[in-house]
Amino acid sequence: MHVLTISAAGVLLFSTSMVAVAETSAGTVLRFDSNPRTMTLRSGETIVIPDRLPIYGVTTGDKVIVTWAQNGAQRVALRVTKRVTSNDD
Question: Both ends of the chain: CA-CA distance in Å?
Fold first, then answer.
């Protein structure tokens, strides 16, 4: 019985320590806020931009693809890519 309890606790520990899966959102930047450092897309999604993540050249109105991971209630950006559109779009 005691071994079963330890085993179940080990399984619970393993399942709660898994790495978060990255998600992707695409959209148009509605606004940036500096405190906290966030980007809001026209869809209403708000994504935290960590200080260590450069987003040079991305401005309001740009179309972006954001790779992010959930951290509690926040979506935290892992990468922000500006979508380049052609005249054919």
Answer: 64
Alpha-carbon distance of 62 to 31, in angstroms, equals 10
- Domain membership of residue 3 (yes or no) is no
H or E element in which residue 8 lies: helix 2-16
CATH of the domain at 52: 2.40.50.320
C-beta of residue 69 within 8 angstroms of C-beta of residue 81: no
Q: What is the largest CA-CA distance in the chain?
A: 69
Closest CA to 57 of 30, 81, 26: 81
Say if residue 50 is preceded by a cis peptide, omega within 30 of 0.
no
35-73 confidence digits (pLDDT tens): 889 999 999 999 999 999 988 889 999 999 999 999 999
Distant-in-sequence, close-in-space partners of 65: CB < 8 Å, separation ≥ 6: 24, 25, 26, 80, 81, 83
